[in-house]
Design goal:
Chain lengths: 289, 282, 269
């Protein structure tokens, strides 16, 4: 499985801000996340959900995994995040093997998963609270991230009082507040309407430009994948595996021009679409009659 | 696949192939059986040992209970007579409570005025432990079978009423809109939308009412007429025959589980589409 | 998913707790209805004094037994003592066991059948045996209150803990929360509505339990006094504790509802 390699990144997106720019994984150029030979079987399925999945995400990189439903991309994300254990293979973050949940990686969920019994600011401060950060400090840090995602004034609102888009922004702030090295995003905009979705895609880019964090993103929207990422990994299904890898050749920052109108966008889109179509028809032909 | 060099600490071995994920023992069928059998063994053993070592006028070991059961159920049929006697009054009371409860509940749900007028009394009676009404009831109709039936009825009817009211209030507006978009008449709407929607709630009410009916039956038998299973329990206790009491209690437990389980089964059969009639769902 | 008796009761409780406050017209009609009935009662009751008594007589009787010669007050006190202590004990024991059973599957598998069986069976059937074992004093009251309340509380709390969505548990895991922290920040707040349901159901059940126990076996207490009034056909006096207990029950439920609303401000709909 060779990939179309054109890794010329025209812009370094990780504009570090102030004293937060600690280069955590040592040498530049070294990947932050290495997924090696990941295999996942469930007891009652006769084929592996994930079969020998391997890829890398560089420091500050943005990699998207895209694929048909049920191809195991969510499982992949959960394993990387530590919510599930692989049957074989390993996860290496920052040079260290990573088994189970850890403080240097967090997740943003499709259905937000905010605690209904906590206000927005308390939700954001959750990770900090668990780490034993003092009350004043975690409140002030949470407020920073609240601001970063554009929700000033909504500190004391409960999730039940916020719109979907706002809730997800809280979810993003919550994940970023603990300053992870790796951010995992499981179809984070899937539960939102189209307008909010596009808006948040742009917002996400801006937010992540300020917080230096590597992102592993899962979606089934091709447009979203191209617009947001540096690399797109296409996953096949039954068994789940990386079928093809695309590098995205659009200059960053992508909100300063209409990236979706670029000819490169359309070309990449067409290629990705045909690849996915292939996978979908393969999946169908593998279905039992 | 990648061109960048991966400088990974190769001293840490990759985790070995772990094979299929194992389901925890407590969730396997075998595991459940083993644990429950074990627990039962402990309970029975404890029961037997404690029973043997203590005052036989107060407590009976498991073996004595078994012997007594044989005596009460097979040699004589004291047990079945009592059980049947209890069941009769309970079934009648319960049987009357269902249509009355549903009717009242429907009336209250349908007509706001009726609701406001009746609400204080229904709420009060629902909160009131029926046991305190028994002396009043005795003043009114004396001791005897009608009293037993009425006690059971009173215990059962209020959960049914309340649940029917709740059910009638939560008919989904969207379903009603669908019906009216098909130009359904009021009767058709009631038949095709309202009643099926309310069914789960009514069933929940009946479910709770079964539990209440058992309480009512026992109340009547222990406090008013001294017949049936409740009567057996009281007389056997007064005569310091703990084995008989325990046999009756076990029969009572079995009967309770059967009835409640029956309603559970009935619910699954009649309403396969409804998992829970909880008004709590968002 | 099949619905157990416990789940039916919980559903009923949730529905009642969520009922919206009604508007002014409703209040007016209710008051009107009560006034009308009181008047009718007064008029008809004088004709059938033995069966119905009438409001003024009841009030008179209340004055007699509560203030002049406070036998009823004493009886209430006795009942309340056993009730309060037993209920608090059942609350603590029941919630603890409920949470433990939800966390340790082994416990749930092993004890579940017994708890379920005892939940479905009326605990008042145990009263004669209890009297045999513990006598007829405070101990018996205390025990029957605990027995009546603890099983519904255990099951409801256990179900409540289980009902906390897996997604929330994912969040706790992802932020590396240990078992205790997960319980405190996720399971506990998520199961609060169920805990309050448990407390309400438990309060009702234990009230029934203690009154029945007193009626059957005690020499003193509210249950006993009600029996006495009944035996001597003192209908006017009889109605006093009937109303008192009814209102007490409503008060308990109302108080728990009130506390619940304060403790769970996010549940406003």
């Amino acid at each position: 499985m060779t990939s179309d390699v054109n890794r010329s990144r025209l812009e370094n997106k990780t504009t570090m801000a102030g004293s937060d720019d600690i280069v955590r994984s040592g040498r530049t150029g070294e990947p932050l996340l290495v997924v090696e030979g990941l295999v996942k079987r469930f007891p009652r399925l006769d084929y592996p959900v994930l079969s020998d999945v391997s890829f890398e995400v560089p420091v500050g990189g943005f990699t998207t995994v895209i694929g048909p439903s049920g191809c195991g991309k969510t499982t992949l994300l959960r394993i990387v995040g530590g919510l599930e254990n692989p049957t074989a293979g390993r996860i290496i973050i920052g040079g260290e093997p990573s088994v189970g949940p850890a403080r240097n990686k967090t997740m943003v969920f499709q259905h937000f998963n905010l605690y209904p019994w906590r206000t927005a600011i308390d939700n954001i401060a959750y990770g900090l609270e668990l780490q034993g950060v003092s009350k004043e400090e975690r409140r002030s840090r949470a407020r920073e991230y609240l601001s970063l995602v554009g929700l000033d004034g909504f500190e004391n609102h409960y999730p039940g009082e916020l719109s979907g888009g706002m809730q997800q922004r809280v979810g993003i702030a919550r994940a970023l507040a603990v300053e992870p090295e790796l951010l995992l995003m499981d179809e984070p905009f899937g539960a939102l309407d189209a307008l909010t979705r596009e808006h948040l895609q742009t917002e996400l880019q801006k937010i992540c430009a300020q917080a230096s964090v590597a992102i592993l993103f899962v979606t089934h929207s091709i447009d979203e994948a191209i617009y947001l990422s540096d690399d797109v990994l296409v996953m096949g299904t039954k068994p789940g595996r990386i079928v093809r890898e695309f590098a995205i050749d659009l200059p960053r920052p992508r909100w300063t021009y209409d990236a979706r109108a670029e000819p490169t966008f359309a070309e990449t889109r067409a290629e990705l679409w045909s690849e996915l179509e292939q996978e979908l028809s393969d999946a169908d032909s593998n279905e039992e009659p | 696949m990648t061109q960048a060099s991966v400088d990974v600490d190769t001293r840490t071995p990759a985790p070995a192939e772990t094979g299929y994920e194992r389901i925890p023992f407590t969730e396997t069928k075998l595991g459940v059986w083993v644990i429950r059998a074990g627990a039962l063994a402990v309970v029975l053993l404890g029961w037997e040992l404690y029973g043997r070592s203590t005052n036989p006028a107060l407590f009976a070991p498991f073996s004595a209970v078994v012997t007594e059961f044989v005596d009460m159920a097979i040699v004589s049929n004291v047990l079945w007579v009592a059980a049947l006697d209890s069941a009769r009054a309970m079934v009648v009371g319960f049987g009357i409570a269902i249509p009355v409860g549903i009717a009242v509940g429907l009336a209250i749900g349908r007509y706001r005025t009726v609701e406001y007028v009746l609400d204080p009394y229904i709420s009060f009676l629902y909160a009131l432990p029926m046991v305190v009404l028994i002396p009043l009831l005795i003043i009114w109709i004396g001791i005897g079978t009608p009293a037993r039936i009425i006690i059971v009825f009173l215990e059962c009817v209020f959960p049914i009423i309340i649940n029917t009211i709740v059910g009638s209030k939560t008919v989904n507006q969207r379903l009603l809109d669908t019906a009216s978009s098909f130009c359904a008449t009021e009767r058709q709407t009631i038949r095709t939308v309202v009643i099926p929607s309310m069914f789960p709630y009514i069933f929940t009410g009946i479910h709770v009412a079964v539990g209440a009916a058992l309480v009512g039956m026992l109340l009547a038998e222990m406090l008013v007429v001294l017949r049936g299973l409740g009567g057996l329990i009281v007389t056997a206790s007064n005569a310091y025959q703990p084995a008989r009491v325990m046999v009756t209690l076990l029969v009572l437990v079995a009967e309770s589980l059967l009835l409640v389980g029956f309603i559970k089964w009935l619910r699954r059969k009649l309403m396969p589409w409804s998992a829970e009639a909880s008004a709590r769902t968002a | 998913m099949t619905q157990d008796l416990a789940q039916s009761e919980i559903a009923l409780d949730h529905a009642r707790a969520k009922e919206k406050r009604s508007d002014r017209r409703a209040l007016l009609l209710r008051i009107l209805s009560i006034v009308v009935v009181l008047i009718l009662w007064e008029i008809i009751g004088r004709q059938y004094e033995l069966f119905l008594s009438y409001p003024l007589a009841v009030l008179q009787a209340a004055w007699e037994v509560l203030v002049v010669d406070n036998e009823l007050l004493v009886a209430f006190g006795e009942t309340l003592r056993g009730y309060a202590v037993g209920y608090v004990a059942a609350m603590i024991l029941g919630t603890m066991l409920g949470y433990l059973m939800s966390y340790f599957k082994v416990l749930d598998v092993a004890l579940g059948p017994y708890v379920n069986a005892l939940y479905a069976t009326p605990r008042i059937a145990l009263i004669p045996l209890l009297v045999l074992w513990v006598g007829i004093g405070f101990g018996m009251r205390f025990t029957i209150v605990i027995l009546s309340a603890v099983f519904p509380i255990i099951i409801t709390v256990r179900d409540g803990a289980r009902s906390v969505a897996d997604e929330f548990l994912d969040v706790a895991r992802i932020f590396v929360a240990g078992g205790w922290r997960t319980w405190r920040t996720t399971i506990l707040p998520g199961s609060l509505p169920y805990v309050f349901s448990a407390l309400r159901i438990g309060a009702q059940r234990s009230l029934i339990g203690i009154i029945v126990a007193e009626t059957l076996a005690a020499l003193t207490g509210t249950g006993r006094i009600i029996q006495d009034y009944g035996q001597f056909f003192q209908t006017d006096r009889l109605l006093v504790p009937i109303f008192a207990i009814g209102f007490f029950s409503i008060f308990m439920t109302g108080a728990l509802n009130f506390i619940q609303r304060r403790v769970t401000p996010w549940e406003r709909r």
